[in-house]
Amino acid sequence: MSVKKIPLEVLFGDPELGQVQIAPDGRRVAFIAPWQGVKNLWVQDLTRGERRRVTADRGRGILAYGWLPSGLLVFMQDTGGDENWRLYAQDPEGGEPRLLTPGEGVQARILKAHPDAPDELLVLLNDRDPSLHDVWRVNARTGERRRVLDNPGFIGFLADERLEVRLAHKSTDDGGGELHLREGSAWKPLLRWELDDGLGTWPLELRGNTLYMASSIGRNTAALVAVDLVTGEERVLAEDPHYDLPDEQGFLFHPRAERPEAVAVMRDRLGWIVLDPALEPDFARLEELEGDVYVTSRDLANRVWAVREELDHRSPRYWIYDRETRELELLGDVLPALAGYTLAPMRPVRYRAKDGLEIEAYLTLPPGREAQGLPAVIAPHGGPWHRDAWGFDPWAQWLANRGFAVLQPNFRGSTGYGKGLLNAGNKQWGRAMQDDLTDAVRWLVEQGIADPKRIAIMGGSYGGYATLAGLAFTPELYAAGVDIVGPSNLFTLLETVPPYWKPMIALFHARMGHPERDADLLRAASPLFHADRIRAPLLIGQGANDPRVKRAESLQIVEALKEKGKPVEYVEYPDEGHGFMQAENRLDFYRRAEAFLEKHLNP
Is 461 a catalytic residue? Predict the structure, then answer.
């Protein structure tokens, strides 16, 4: 079967229909789409179908936004990828945006909005102390703002329906966490958990005197629980024996609802546990769609939903769902140009690590080719406290279209699979976590899928670290590596975290290693100190303004490799941070990566 080559512009260009959200009145949707090569905000009338651009940004573009209950739009924007987010208000009819959070070097985060205060929202700002976000109440229509809470040392807050901050959580010295309840001006300890539960336990929503949270305390997987703040009684509302919930995109709790309505769980594919019987017919209707369903937003009446359907073999697409009529109307494809090309299915697979631990992964094979003796790419995800999921993946489709088999392992240390797998990655950077990737290579070869002489490793952030580690610690395995914003020296990585990560630095020390107590471990796991062992060609991409993995992480290993005469290519983008958000930069890097992989793996 002949398969057409998919242009990189089709796969990695800006989406034509991105981040669709329904307006509070249910009559319009907003979305992000390019204008003059820059991502801007658009609004579409659902009755007439008319689309209007409402912003005219010619710089960084708009990466995230939302509706306020009043019908105003708010959006976030940083400078060159520095993640010092500024918050703007935007009239959906157009006009100039209003800056709501002025100040240089300040990061804004949205905490909460509620229909009872339709123009207002709680915003977190680190203007007083770069390491701590205080709580501000902001009126998006007038621009008025006032500080309502000085942060005494917490990493997050929860507010109720009256926009009153009542709960806060913090990281403990052992890498666990604590929840505190606000009583007047004092904070009372409410709940504490240890390191083992540190990434499986967090607060989600507060209604009256009931706290809804994810909790892995006393169980392997995170469950959805309700905690009575008066009596302390805890009730389990939903759980899965093998997978954590809720999935990060799947906790439905309408502002006007009295209880949680549904919770998503990412197994091999996304599933839903419906908690409110009134929604059962709706999810039965949505299950008729071919792909996995994400409910991205709902109107204030909870009648009209915006739904994203995720498929592996075609572009994701958005639907408008009317709960009264049970009708689904197609809004459009995220990447409509993909319709003219053959995409590859993504298949969940499992393999055993050398110590017997089962690792789940996703395999994408080149369409139209026999799955035997192929060049292959191992693609470890970032985080590392994250996971890959089923659906459309532009990396996997690009590489499979070019003739590569692609394996994406959810190695130990990944989230979503329970704390057993997660905590098996503690202090295992470059060790057992890397062994899981080595075992992925061996599995591909044993299955006959991969040619052992033509295997590359490619990833971003932690995946970039794993690329460097793979080339340094198992040089015999890989014919090439592609690293995007990956750390090379775990000492300097920990020394230079953003200031607002410092209140939870104990979590990093507990899960990665302490720079003093675990110095030998960190040195052994840092690819920089083993650069002499790297022999495969390496391509590195870096954003100059990355606040998480500073450019020095890339520069120091490039320098070390060049001093030793090792083959390394380096490209840096002056207007990027932790990843490549600008389409022209993405396309430039992936053109380089494609030529690099074809040169060294010859698919």
Answer: yes
